[in-house]
Amino acid sequence: MRTFLDSRPVSEISALLNAYDEQTRARIPEVTSAGVTHEWDGPLLRTIGYHRGFVETTGDLRIRGAELDALIARQRDYFAARGEAVEWKTRSHDKPADLVARLLAAGFEPEESETVLIGEAADLAAEPPLPDGVTLRQVTAHDDLERIAAMEAEVWGKDRPWLAEELGGRIAADPDEVAVFVAEVGSGMDAHVVSAAWISLKDSPQFAGLWGGSTLEAWRGKGIYRALVARRARLAVSRDIKYVQVDASENSRPILERLGLRVITRTTPYVWSPEH
Q1: Would you say residue 2 has pLDDT above 70?
Q2: Which of 45, 187, 236, 254 could form a disulfide with 121 if both were Cys (CB 3.0 to 4.6 A apart)?
Q3: If pLDDT is split at 50, 70 and 90, which confidence band does 187 have?
Q4: pLDDT above 80 for 238
Q5: Residue 106 backbone phi and psi in degrees, to 5
Q6: Average of per-residue pLDDT values in the chain
């Protein structure tokens, strides 16, 4: 079947952006973790059952004014009744243009913005040499996922007690949907996680999502992040997935651009929390 990206030159940022909007946003996955549900509220997809609620939309909500305010308020009030926070993930090209102003007026607060980049998986699959003593390994065991959560907490300066459970739930629900990798030094009981990343392989027929990609400060600049990108890209290629997309921090963005990924937009989560 002919797809959107087959019909236009992939070098055009507009083509990549349209494909990203059409194929990766507001999609109900084929298989979901136990206890996770998805439901539509008009043009918006709501996800319940993770550490906080998530709201996802396509590029244009196609509603305006009071109708949009009511949609925003329903998400806030829905999760307020559950005593949970909710994240509404925006992109810089989203419409209407006053969406962010209306989210702020409803009590949502911005978290750190990231850059969305897209690249061809085959162009990223050549794996560089690793530093002496560092190995990459795919993991599924809960103990390994807990070690990843501890490393992420050290990198970002905040605990992520939900991370191991959510990754484990996704692996249990569909081992072919997500693959988790660690870079570690040592072996056995003495192994120490220095970086970790995972890939979502069923975001859409043409896109896989690269997530995580956190590295302890002492181990940065040694090619480990690049090796994790390559290992995941190789897996995407083996599944006949053409593109990878990344929400990149300012630390990761320059590396990914050097590897040839293209910037297509910015993304900012807006979060309402009962603690606000």
Answers
A1: no
A2: 236
A3: confident
A4: yes
A5: -90, 0
A6: 94
Distance CA 155, CA 174 (A): 28
Total residues found in the chain within this entry = 276
> Which one, of 262, 258, 268, 256, lies nearest residue 232 by Cα?
256
Mean pLDDT value of segment 162-181: 96
pTM for this prediction: 0.92
182-to-143, 158, 163, 173 alpha-carbon distances in Å: 12, 20, 14, 21
Using alpha carbons, select from 212, 151, 208 the residue that is nearest to residue 181. Answer: 212
Task: Find how far residue 169's CA is from the centre of its chain.
Answer: 16
Strands 262-272 and 86-91: antiparallel
Q: How far is CA 82 from the centre of its chain?
A: 24
Q: Are strands 243-248 and 207-215 parallel, antiparallel or unpaired?
A: parallel
> In sequence order, which ranges of the chain are alpha helices (DSSP H)?
13-24, 65-82, 99-105, 142-156, 163-173, 224-238, 253-258
- The yes-or-no verdict on residue 30 having pLDDT over 90 is no
Calculate the alpha carbon distances from 68 to 61, 96, 166 in Å.
Answer: 8, 9, 31
